[in-house]
Fold this sequence. Notes:
Blueprint: H1 14-35, H2 38-56, H3 61-74, H4 80-86, H5 89-108, H6 110-121
Amino acid sequence: xxxxxxxxxxxxxxxxxxxxxxxxxxxxxxxxxxxxxxxxxxxxxxxxxxxxxxxxxxxxxxxxxxxxxxxxxxxxxxxxxxxxxxxxxxxxxxxxxxxxxxxxxxxxxxxxxxxxxxxxxxxx
Length: 124
């Protein structure tokens, strides 16, 4: 079980943030050395940092994604016109709808009920 956070407490320890920062800096260095182009290195680093950051700090996944897109826009790696052009509203609405349905099912205890049914069905 995950540890419950107290009000005002930030998840993650300084050690975890240091590990994350070290990974991002190492990836940035390797991407720049391997790719040679600064914009490609930034894009690859942001992509890998998003995956690692989301895995390490699940509660901050939206903030991590926002920071990643901000870095891409501020460095000129991606411009706003291309970002808007390649956004697909159908996918965004689908993901939001899925998140809402999963949250409602979790709050109602559906997944616990389903797990119990599966365990009983397997006669465990």
